[in-house]
Design goal:
The complex is a heterodimer of chains A (400) and B (449). With 400 residues, chain A is mainly alpha-helical. Chain A contains 17 helices and six strands. In chain A, strands 1-6 form a two-stranded antiparallel ribbon. In chain A, strands 2-3 form a two-stranded antiparallel sheet. Chain A has a two-stranded antiparallel ribbon with strand order 4-5. In chain A, helix 7 crosses helix 8. Chain B starts with 7 loop residues before the first helix and ends in a 23-residue tail after the last helix. Classes of the chains: A mainly alpha (400), B alpha/beta (449). At the A-B interface, helix 2 and helix 5 of A face strand 2, helix 3, helix 4 and helix 6 of B.
Amino acid sequence: MLGLGKKDFTLLLIVAVMTLLAPLLLNPFPESSGLAQFNAGYPDLMQRFVIFGIFAIGFNILFGLTGYLSFGHAAFLGVGSYGAMWMMKLVSLNVIPAIIMAIIVAGIFSLAVGYISLRRSGIYFSILTLAFAQMSYALAYSVLTPLTGGETGLQIKSSDTPLFSNVADGDIGRANLFGMDMRASHEVAMGDWLFTFNAGYYIAGVVMLIAFYLSIRIFRSPFGTMLRAVKSNQTRMYYTGLNARPYTLAAFVISGMYAGLAGGLLVAMDTQVGPERMFWTASGEVVLMTILGGAGTLIGPVLGSGAIKYMENILSKINKDILHEWFAFLPAGLDDFIVAIVYPFVGKGWHLTLGLIFMGVVIFLPGGLVQGGQKIGGLFRRKKASDNDSDKSTQSTPAE
Amino acid sequence: MSKSNFTRRGLLKTGAVTGAGLALPTYLAAQESYLNAPTGASVTLGFNVPQSGPYADEGADELRAYELAVEHLNGTGADNGMLETFSSKALEGNGILGKEVKYVTGDTQTKSDAARASAKSMIEKDGAIMITGGSSSGVAVAVQALCQEAGVIFMAGLTHSNDTTGKDRKANGFRHFFNSYMSGAALAPVLAANYGTDRKAYHLTADYNWGYTTEEAVRASTEAMGWETVAAVKTPLTQTDFSSYIAPVLQSGADTLVLNHYGGNMVNSLTNAVQFGLRDKQVNGKDFQIVVPLYSRLMAKGAGANVKGIFGSTNWHWSLQDDASKAFVKSFGTKYGFPPSQAAHTCYVQAILYADAVQRAGSFAPCAVVEALEGFEFDGMGNGPTLYRAEDHQCFKDVLVVKGKENPTSEFDLLEIVEVTPMEQVMYAPDHPQMGGADASLGSCNNGA
C-alpha cells in the first residue's frame, strides 16, 4: 500500500498510531503520584520528540545509507530556523511558508557545503562539515548580528508587522496555521490523569509521518540502493564506471533539507531562534541519536532522538529534593546514602547517564536500540517455527 | 407512575443547591483566569539556572540562594534573612498567600534553546507560576520572551546587557540586576578622579551582544568626561589566548585598556595583559591602567593576583556593612559555610520581591503582580533604597565601584568597595538610545489564559 511493502506499511502504521496516541502513551502515571515526574506527555517535549525525530531521520539518510559521517548537520537546522524566522517576521505568521522557506534555505546551504565537503571522504569529510558548522555558528553569534540577532537570537516582537498577517498594534504575532494557534491545547482530565492534545504537536506529527514515509521510499528505491553501494565499496563503484559524487551530494542535500524542515518546525512551535542551535554539540547530538537508535534502520533515529530528548528534559529535572521525597520511606541514614549514590546520575548529571547508556549500546548492541528490540523479539519468536527466513530480505540492516 | 410532591422546604433546598451550583463555575472561572493558578495548598516556582556549561558555578550559587529564599518564605529556615530588614512587611513566613512554596529546578546549559525547553517544561508540566534565574543575557532575553508569550512572570537572574530591559523588555519580565549603562555611568567619575580626564582608551570587546552594549555604555560615559577612544577591537567569545590582541595595544598610543569581557574571557584577557607587563608601562607620561566594567567574585578568583588595583563595577558585594547585607551573608554563610556571590544575592532578592508582590496584590495573577511591582519602592535588600521602574521593569539603585584588593585575607575577600555611586547618577530615561530608543515598549501584560 502507498507503494510500500507489507512490512514497511505495518511499520508506518505503527508509527502513525504511536504519534496519534502519544499524549496518552507518554502520560502513563497519575498526576498526584511521585512517578508523574516521569511523564513526558506535555506539548513542548512531544513537539521536540517528533521534530528531532525528523532531524535524525534526515541525518540517517546520509549517515545510515552512504556512511558519510557529517559533524555539521546542526548548521542546516540553524539556517533553516533563521530562514523560517525571517519569513514569519516579514511575510506571514502562517507556518507553511515559513517551513517551506526553511527547507529551501537549508537545501541551498547544504548544496554549497556538500559540494565542497564531499570532495573528501572519511574523517576529512567529517572535519570539513564540522568546520562549516562552527563557522556558521561564529557568524551567527557575532559577525552577522544584524541578521541573526547575535547571542540573544531572534524573536517575534510587537514591532514586527508581517506582510500578510494582521497583528493588532502592540500585540505579539503568534505562529499559526490558517488561524489555528500552534499553542492551542485541549486538555482532557480522566480521573487523576491529565492529557494534553496540542495543535502544534499534531501538525509536527503529521509532518514527521510524511518525512518518515519519504525516508522509507528512499531506503527502498534504486537510489537508496546506490547509496548503500557507496557505503559498502565506493572504489568498486568507480571501477564499474559509476560516479558516486552526484549520489552522495543528493543524499547530503536531502538530509540537509530534512534538517532545515526540523529547524523550520522548531521555529513554528516556539518562535525563537538562537545561534546555539548550530553549535557543534548540537551536531554531535544528532549523531548520538542516530547511533543510539540504530544507524541505517528506519525507525532507529526516531527512537534515539526520543530517548535523548527524554533524558535531557526529564532526568535533568530530578533534583535532590525530589530524590529525598522518593526515598523518604527509608531510615534516615540509608535515605541519604541512596540519594548520594543516585544523585550524580540525575539532575545536572544526566549527561553521565546518557554516556553510560550510549557506551552500553555501542558495546552490546552495535545496531542500536533497534537491535535490542530485535533481540528481544527473537527470544519470543525462536519458540515458534522458524518461518521468518523470508524476513531477512526486507529487514533493515544495522550499522557497520 | 409518577408522583410529584412540591413542598416549600423541598423547593428551598433545590433552589439553594442550584444556586450554589450556578455560583460555583463563576467562582472557579475567577480562580482560573490565569495560567497555572495554584489550586492546592502549595504554589510552584521554577528555578531555571545554568547547572552545566561555562556559568555552572554561578548557577550553583543561584540555586543555593533560591533554596534559602524558599526556606525563608516558608518560615522553615534557621533565621529569616533579609525578610527581617525588607521594608515591606507583607510576607508572614507562611509561604505566599498562605500557600507553601515548592519549586522545580532546570538546567539552562547557558543556551537559549535548552533554557526555553526547560522553562516550558516547568510551565506546561509542573505548573510553575513564575520562572526565575539564569546567568547570561542571551538566556534571559529568550526566557523572558517565552514567559511573556506563555503568560507567567519572569524574574531575571544575573543579566547585565542593556537589552534585557532595553530593546527586548517585556511586560511580564523584571530585572533586579544592574546593566551596562549603569556600569559605565558609575565607573566614569571614579576613573576620572583616579586616572584623570585626558586618557586614551583601547577597548577589547567580547564579540557578542553583551560586549557591544557594555562597550557602548563605557565609551559614551568616558568620552563624555573627556577620554578619547583610540580603538575598539572585537574578540571572539571562544578566544582563550589574548596575546595577539594585547600586543597592538601599546603601539596604538593608548594608556588605558578597557576589557569588556566576562567570565573565562575576562580571566584570560586580564591575565594576558598583566603578563605582558602592561601595568608597569608608562604611556603619554602616565601609568598604564586596565579597567574591567563588570566584576564578579568568581572572576576575581579566576584571575587571582592579577586583579589587584583594577577598577570595575558590581551589583552587590558581601562585604557591605548595611543591616540587610549582613543579615543575608549571615543567613547564607550559616547554611553553606561561605559568603554569597552577587548572582546569589540578585536571585534571592528577586524571589523575595516576587513573593512580596503577590502577597501585596493578593493574587498570583501575572497582571496583578506586574501592577504590584511597577513603581515599587523598597529598602532593606542590600542595595539601599531601590525603585522598580514602571516604564522598563528595571531596578534602580546605587551601584558599587570596586577594585581588586591588594592584600586579600581569604579566597572570598578579593574585592574592595571604592565608591557607592548614588542612584541618581546612573538613572537614564526609559527611551534612552542605548535602551532601544523610543521603539522599545513593554507591550501589555499577559495572564496566559
